[in-house]
Amino acid sequence: MPTADTCLFCRMIRGEVPTPVVYESETAFAFLDHRPVFPGHCLVLPRRHVPTLSDLPADLVGTFFQEVQLLTRAVESAMTAQGTFVAMNNRISQSVPHLHVHVVPRNRGDGLRGFFWPRTRYPSEEEMEAVRIAVANAAARLRTQTS
Rg for the chain (alpha carbons), in Å? Predict the structure, then answer.
């Protein structure tokens, strides 16, 4: 089991790994998934290294999920999505053992069914950067509105 020193997500938070960051706060860190279900698919994780939801300290649960809520609104706004799919794996199907919440933009008729997640790639670095900027700007605007 990785520690905070070796965890990929902790290394991303520390800036040791290039990451398409869309949002940062004292509690949370969010970035674009490198293999999104749809463009704008983000991962939101606590800055503190915790492997699963059951490991998240009770005093951080509310604050962390307020950040997830903000990113949900930001993704919907930036991607002009009708809604979102928000999901979390605990151990099973968790590719990195650091708690993370998927925020996936959704629209009626987008083809997503059940728990089959057809992963894709961004067509180019430029398109990924345009999506990153759109989500980051929406998150910053929403954060300012709620402060």
Answer: 15
